[in-house]
Amino acid sequence: NINIADTLKHLHIDGINEACSTGSNWASSANAEVRAITSPVDGKIIAQVKMATAADYDKVVQQAQKAFINWRTLPAPKRGDIVRQIGDALRQNKQHLGTLVSYEMGKSLQEGLGEVQEMIDICDFAVGLSRQLHGLTMHSERPLHRMYEQYHPLGVVGIISAFNFPVAVWSWNAMLAWVCGDVCIWKPSEKTPLTAIACQHIAQAVCTANGVEEGVSCLLIGDSKIGELMANDSRLPLISATGSTRMGKAVGAAVGARLGRSLLELGGNNAIIITENADLDMALIGAVFGAVGTAGQRCTTTRRLIIHDSVYEAFKQKLVKAYAQIRIGNPLDENNHMGPLIDQEAVNSYLAAIDACKAVGGNFVVEGGRLQGEAYASGCYVRPCIAEVENHYKIVQHETFAPILYLMRYKTLEEAIALQNGVPQGLSSAIMTNNLREAETFLSVAGSDCGIANVNIGTSGAEIGGAFGGEKETGGGRESGSDAWKVYMRRQTNTINYSTSLPLAQGIKFDL
Ligand code: NAD
């Protein structure tokens, strides 16, 4: 019973949408390319967008630089109050925005609403943070001297985001960056620009009501070409980029070449170790939700299960039974567990991964494939599948962004941890066990090498209060909670001499 036309109208999505916004001003170049945005849910065109050009890009950066000069002087708690109001505006728009996330990206309505809730939560977190952007004071070795550190805003922060969390990733970055005194330029995924346009309208209404200058919240609709301009632009001291490891290597190299700062949130290859001491019913829920939720298109999706020999067969049977009950279809229908993949290209890489897995000896205990029929007219719906594999297979070492779950068995915990760590990525990991020694070993220095390590919780999903991110090819960045805010600021150490002489550090004498 969801009326998409109503949702689009409510969120100010037009038939053809402009390429860039510095706040209230929306514009495009006369020669802008126009692209149609199609829903993976039903294959229909939702709306069209114009693509930003290099000239548009430059204008946006100039306006953002201008806005930074004033925004940085607004006291942080006042900036926090604006973020609080953005959180309230998101609360009011939750149903419509969640619906558009689901329709444009293909995740279930519940997950779409959950994503908007995550945005609301990070606003709340950022409001509190706006009164806690503090550094330390240190004791000086020199008499009548004071030494302390403070955090200042960085400037224009570039945010490049992926299609699978089309709005939450922006909020994780922007809400923190804003309370820190930075201004933001967001380039969303070219696959999901409409939800971004909706967010820009929501944030801008609050900015306008508060007299916030044009340029604090900027949006650029574009593909990797705009992303490359951002990565190479020394006017942007920080680039926060979320997406594939391939993208992260390109962005990291470009930002590194100009000695800028990058925050990289890249692919995962997440595993759950299921020990002989696991509660298998609990493990089943964690594994199945982790593997099929968002149709396997979360960076924290469970891709591998490392199962103890003694419970392997029993757990495999449970999984096969559970997979038979998964309902696939329109994600806006709450009866369905799993919606479509983002596009046909994603379906093709899913099918290619299945072929590659079979070619090296992978044994499919639940078969995959593309779903046909009227309910699947977009051509983006697939079956979640399960294969018994060996960890060293090239395809298992690679993140395929689709619902393919790999099973492998182990005998000792050391072996299980080696398998868990034996991939290039290092985002999320989990162990299912009621045994304290196993749990603590997994969390110890000799345990998981990932940025996220859970006990008796799956790999998928995270709370905003913790720092989010991973190691190795996942890029090393951390965003959201804990002290992740520090990356959006520059640290300054200050020493103040209130004596009548000038003693030098390390006791050095310099008499004139
Ligand atoms: P993608 O790499 O294709 O695109 C991500 C973004 O990067 C898009 O906005 C794209 O336009 C831009 N981009 C691509 N190439 C670029 C380049 N050379 N320079 C600058 N920008 C460039 O990824 P995707 O398919 O949208 O998203 C899926 C991937 O994102 C998966 O690998 C997933 O694991 C990862 N992801 C990671 C996290 C995390 O927090 N670690 C979160 C969500 C998604």
UniProtKB/TrEMBL annotation:
<keyword id="KW-0560">Oxidoreductase</keyword>
<dbReference type="GO" id="GO:0004029">
    <property type="term" value="F:aldehyde dehydrogenase (NAD+) activity"/>
</dbReference>
<dbReference type="InterPro" id="IPR016163">
    <property type="entry name" value="Ald_DH_C"/>
</dbReference>
<feature type="domain" description="Aldehyde dehydrogenase">
    <location>
        <begin position="26"/>
        <end position="493"/>
    </location>
</feature>
<keyword id="KW-0520">NAD</keyword>
<comment type="similarity">
    <text>Belongs to the aldehyde dehydrogenase family.</text>
</comment>
<dbReference type="InterPro" id="IPR016162">
    <property type="entry name" value="Ald_DH_N"/>
</dbReference>
<dbReference type="InterPro" id="IPR044638">
    <property type="entry name" value="ALDH7A1-like"/>
</dbReference>
<dbReference type="InterPro" id="IPR015590">
    <property type="entry name" value="Aldehyde_DH_dom"/>
</dbReference>
<protein>
    <recommendedName>
        <fullName>aldehyde dehydrogenase (NAD(+))</fullName>
        <ecNumber>1.2.1.3</ecNumber>
    </recommendedName>
</protein>
<dbReference type="InterPro" id="IPR029510">
    <property type="entry name" value="Ald_DH_CS_GLU"/>
</dbReference>
<feature type="active site">
    <location>
        <position position="265"/>
    </location>
</feature>
<comment type="subunit">
    <text>Homotetramer.</text>
</comment>
<dbReference type="Pfam" id="PF00171">
    <property type="entry name" value="Aldedh"/>
</dbReference>
<dbReference type="InterPro" id="IPR016161">
    <property type="entry name" value="Ald_DH/histidinol_DH"/>
</dbReference>
